[in-house]
Design a protein that fits this description.
Chain lengths: 136, 101
C-alpha cells in the first residue's frame, strides 16, 4: 500500500479483566502489526497491572491474555515502555512483571528484552515523538 | 444488621472506594473485579485501607486476585479472602448490598 512509515504509540492505562480496554488494545496492536508501521507500547498507571505474572483466570471465566503479550516479539513489537513511577505507586518492580523478549534475526536470533523501564519525563518525550497515539 | 458495600473499580482509576469509605463505618465491604487492587500491600492506598479496617470489615474476592496474578500473601493483613460462595453468603447475611461503581 503506502510507503509512509509512522511511529504508532499504544498507550495502556487500565487494569486487565475489569474492563475490556486492555484486551481490545492488544487486538488492535496485533492487527496493526500487519501493516509494517513502527509500533511502541506504553504501560502507565493501572496499565502496568496488565503485565503481572501468574494470571490464573479460570476462576473468573475470562480468557487469560498473558500468552499474547509473550508473543508480541514474534509480531515485531519490541518496544514496550513501562513507567517507573506507576510501578512504585503500586508497590511493584520489574520482577513482578512478565519478561518479554524478541529475537533479533540480525544477531543469530539472540533473545533481547522488549521491556524498557522509563521515567515519567522520558515517557512524556516518547509521547511527544510519536506520530500517532492510540489511547486505551 | 448491616449493609454489604461492594467496590469494583481500582482506587487509581476511580474514587469509588474513597467515597464508599465515607459511609461504610460499622458495615461490611467486599472488594471485587478491579477493586481488588485496593486490598494489596505496597500501594499508595495501603494506609488508607488499613485505617478503614478499624471500622469496616473488609473482604476481597479471591478469584479476581488470582486472575490478576496476586496470591493471598500480598493481601493486607486483616482483610479476609472469600470465593464466590463466600460472596453469596455475605450477600445473604447482610440486610442489603450497596454497589459503588
Amino acid at each position: 500500500m503506502s510507503e509512509t512509515i509512522k511511529n504508532f504509540l499504544y498507550l495502556n492505562r487500565r487494569a486487565p479483566y475489569g474492563t475490556i480496554y486492555a484486551w481490545e488494545a492488544l487486538e488492535v496492536v496485533l492487527i496493526g502489526a500487519a501493516f509494517d508501521q513502527d509500533v511502541s507500547l506504553a504501560f502507565v498507571d493501572d496499565g502496568v497491572y496488565q503485565l503481572t505474572k501468574d494470571h490464573e483466570t479460570a476462576g473468573i471465566g475470562m480468557k487469560n491474555f498473558s500468552p499474547t503479550f509473550a508473543a508480541l516479539g514474534d509480531y515485531e513489537v519490541k518496544k514496550i515502555f513501562i513507567e517507573q513511577e506507576s510501578l512504585e505507586e503500586r508497590g511493584l518492580t520489574l520482577d513482578d512483571l512478565q519478561h518479554l523478549v524478541w529475537e533479533d534475526e540480525d544477531e543469530d536470533y539472540a533473545e533481547k528484552d522488549s521491556i524498557k523501564l522509563v521515567s515519567r519525563a522520558e515517557m512524556a518525550a516518547i509521547m511527544d515523538a510519536s506520530d500517532v497515539v492510540f489511547s486505551f | 444488621m448491616s449493609t454489604l458495600h461492594t467496590v469494583n473499580k481500582s482506587p487509581f482509576e476511580k474514587n469509588s472506594l474513597d467515597a464508599c469509605l465515607n459511609y461504610a463505618g460499622g458495615a461490611n465491604l467486599l472488594l471485587m473485579e478491579d477493586g481488588v487492587y485496593a486490598a494489596l500491600k505496597g500501594t499508595r492506598f495501603e494506609q488508607r485501607v488499613k485505617t478503614a479496617l478499624d471500622s469496616v470489615k473488609v473482604f476481597v474476592l479471591g478469584p479476581d486476585l488470582k486472575a490478576r496474578g496476586f496470591s493471598e500473601e500480598r493481601v493486607i493483613d486483616g482483610i479476609s479472602v472469600v470465593d464466590y460462595a463466600g460472596f453469596v453468603d455475605l450477600a445473604a447475611e447482610n440486610v442489603k448490598v450497596q454497589a459503588w461503581l
